[in-house]
């Protein structure tokens, strides 16, 4: 979580030598894809599938939220670890773009549920799930705008970026975890609405949804683990170099002159 | 999250100079006490209060879990920041003891709900809340046992401790966050069971419970923020010193001889 790269070179942690990073990333992707596939399977097998019309419009909501705010948002955070030796600017643009995709997909999911509520005459924004969801949505948007203006355009001064970076990392991870938590609340809500008392008889749908819930938790934990390992952060040299390049690019254009 | 103390001395983060730590800790305690008070208010005002008999026995469960696994567990993690300049061993014992208290209170809450289910003839362990809760409970116990045997008795070697420490810190924070998430799932479950369709009409109980949910999230976020600020970690000197003292104590008894 903290952005300290300079120490820990001497301390190597259990099962976390830099060589293990690809395996952890592969495991996170496996979990993320299982989450998306199982959400699709749940909606397809037990909730009648997906459409933009009728009652099936609701089902667009969980699928879009899981793809956008859980899977893609998680992967956007992992970009700095997966491409830890690539140019910082490329990584940064990829990070920003993945968040844009995540946000657009989540927006479709949000429109789907509001439209469904409107057609059915249901009340909006009364549940804890909806309150947490709106909070995640607003925080995502603010975080993206502030991140974009500090790190990409127009870009803040070198020292201001260094001061803001740990906050950006902390709130990015927090928003991601809050997204996972909100997904769990939504899953639980839908199960209690549709299964009701049948939930307690270990119906296949209930068990599948519980497993989906545990997979969501596991994806969140593995992403957080990869993010917080000190040895897997970007090497300081590459980062310092790239940062000063960014600074030059933004203040002096693309001229290769040294400061 | 990562235990790197040696860097970051030069980089100071926005709004996180060491002088601000007491204010953040005070804020976290205010949030934690509000969470406990509001849980009590919810159970007292809308759920008929607390007793070990009849239907009121269920209400022991949320109150104990919030006090034990959320408030006390959160405070056990903060001990290393609040007493960052005290002797490491004292802090360590306090950390372990707070976890013991948290665990005992949570155990009472667990017995309450199983006993209530048994008397009412309800099924056990079918919901996502219960699956997450059992996971938290088992992880807490394992984490405490491993932590105790590595850091207190019999104690592992200096290098083994250094390798295990980041894992202990990561899983400690993860178990705490999972506790907060499980509390949210339980709150949601109880609201849907007892309020049902009245939840969507903005009944006072529903609004109070949603605010309680947001307070739980806020407590989790503030504790995590305090834990992950690099500048608020224990100063390296104090720690190294205390660690080598522990090491001496365990290997050579209390003799003040140097190695």
UniProtKB/TrEMBL annotation, chains A, B:
Primary location class: membrane
Subcellular location: Cytoplasmic vesicle, Secretory vesicle, Chromaffin granule membrane
PROSITE patterns in the record: CYTOCHROME_B561 (PS50939)
Classification via SMART domains: B561 (SM00665)
InterPro entries listed in its UniProt record: CYB561/CYBRD1-like (IPR043205), Cyt_b561/ferric_Rdtase_TM (IPR006593)
Catalytic activity: monodehydro-L-ascorbate radical(out) + L-ascorbate(in) = monodehydro-L-ascorbate radical(in) + L-ascorbate(out)
GO CC list: chromaffin granule membrane; lysosomal membrane
UniProt membrane topology term: Multi-pass membrane protein
Keyword Metal-binding: yes
Cytochrome b561 domain residues: 27-228
Record-linked Pfam families: Cytochrom_B561
Cofactor: heme b
Gene3D superfamilies: 1.20.120.1770
Gene Ontology MF terms: metal ion binding; oxidoreductase activity
Membrane-spanning intervals of the chain: 21-45, 65-83, 95-114, 134-156, 168-187, 207-227
Top-level lineage group: Eukaryota
Key words, A-Z: Cytoplasmic vesicle, Electron transport, Heme, Iron, Membrane, Metal-binding, Translocase, Transmembrane, Transmembrane helix, Transport
UniProt keyword Iron, yes or no: yes
Role of this protein: Transmembrane reductase that uses ascorbate as an electron donor in the cytoplasm and transfers electrons across membranes to reduce monodehydro-L-ascorbate radical in the lumen of secretory vesicles. It is therefore involved the regeneration and homeostasis within secretory vesicles of ascorbate which in turn provides reducing equivalents needed to support the activity of intravesicular enzymes.
Name of the molecule in the record: Transmembrane ascorbate-dependent reductase CYB561
Species this chain originates from: Rhinolophus ferrumequinum (Greater horseshoe bat)
